[in-house]
Specification:
Mean pLDDT: 89
Oligomer: single chain
Domain HTH cro/C1-type: 13-62
Structural class: mainly alpha
Strand order of the largest sheet: 1-2
Pfam family, one: HTH_26
Protein name: Helix-turn-helix transcriptional regulator
Number of helices: 6
Helix content: 55-70%
Radius of gyration: 12 Å
Order of helices and strands: EHHHHHEH
InterPro entries: Cro/C1-type_HTH, Lambda_DNA-bd_dom_sf
Length: 80
C-alpha cells in the first residue's frame, strides 16, 4: 500500500508518548502501534478526527501517499 502514516514525527514534535496519545484519542496503544507500523488497513473518520484534534493538525500531516516504487524507501527497516 502506498499510504504512509507519519505519527512518529507528529508525536515527537509534540513530545507526546504513545500512551498519552492513545488515551487522548481513545484507542489502545496496540492500535497506535498498528497505525505507526503501517499495518492498518483502514482508519475510521471518527478516529482520524480524534487524531487531528489531539495533535492539532490536518489529516495530511499524519497520512501521505507515495508511489508504490518509493514505498519501500519511505518505510523504516524492520527491527530498527
Amino acid at each position: 500500500m502506498a499510504i504512509v502514516v507519519d505519527l512518529d514525527l507528529q508525536l515527537a514534535r509534540r513530545g507526546m508518548s504513545v500512551g498519552e496519545f492513545a488515551e487522548a484519542v481513545g484507542i489502545t496503544p496496540a492500535n497506535v502501534a498498528v497505525l505507526k507500523n503501517g499495518r492498518a488497513k483502514a482508519v475510521r473518520f471518527t478516529t482520524l478526527d480524534a487524531i487531528c484534534r489531539t495533535l492539532g493538525c490536518q489529516p495530511g500531516d499524519v497520512l501521505r501517499w507515495v508511489p508504490d516504487e518509493e514505498e519501500e524507501q519511505a518505510r523504516p527497516e524492520e527491527g530498527s
